[in-house]
Design a protein that fits this description.
- The protein is α+β, with helices and mostly antiparallel strands.
- It is built from two helices and seven strands, in the order E-H-E-E-E-E-E-E-H.
- The model has no long low-confidence stretch (mean pLDDT 94).
Length: 144
């Protein structure tokens, strides 16, 4: 069986912490796959905010739209865990970029990798309903 592989950069420049709540846990007693996508969404919002950006400028109708997402699960997360989510950008083009995520937690003085993920983000004009060009200012901040 072929497996998804994400070539995640070793160093990601931004980190944030999110505590796992009961709503993140599924019937298996661990963090659900759908919750991982929600958690990386929150991490992405925080990452963009750290650069002074947001996913959507409502006044201009310009922002980001997700083109793809991939998640590789490496460990289990549980209610009460505090996830450290490292985030960084790469593969920047004229129209978008990829965001990489590494989720870890600490238990009994050990770092456990929960998952690694990637989301492909495209700059999008929501008024025209079409792809737009990624502003140079975004490109410069994302490469820092």
């Amino acid at each position: 069986m072929a497996r998804v592989r994400i070539d995640i950069p070793e160093k990601l420049g931004f980190t944030t912490q999110i505590q796992i709540t009961i709503k993140d846990v599924n019937y298996g007693g661990h963090v659900g796959n759908d919750s991982i996508l929600s958690l990386i969404h929150e991490a992405r919002i925080r990452f963009l905010a750290s650069m002074g950006y947001q996913e959507l400028d409502k006044e201009k109708g310009l922002g980001l739209i997700m083109a793809d997402a991939a998640v590789v699960y490496k460990g289990e997360g549980f209610h009460g865990d505090i996830f450290d989510i490292a985030v960084g950008a790469g593969d920047i083009s004229s129209f978008g970029f990829d965001i990489y995520y590494r989720i870890t937690t600490k238990r009994e003085d050990k770092t456990i990798v929960i998952s690694e993920a990637k989301s492909g983000m495209i700059y999008f004009d929501y008024n025209e309903r079409k792809v737009g060009r990624l502003p140079e200012a975004w490109k410069q901040k994302l490469t820092l």
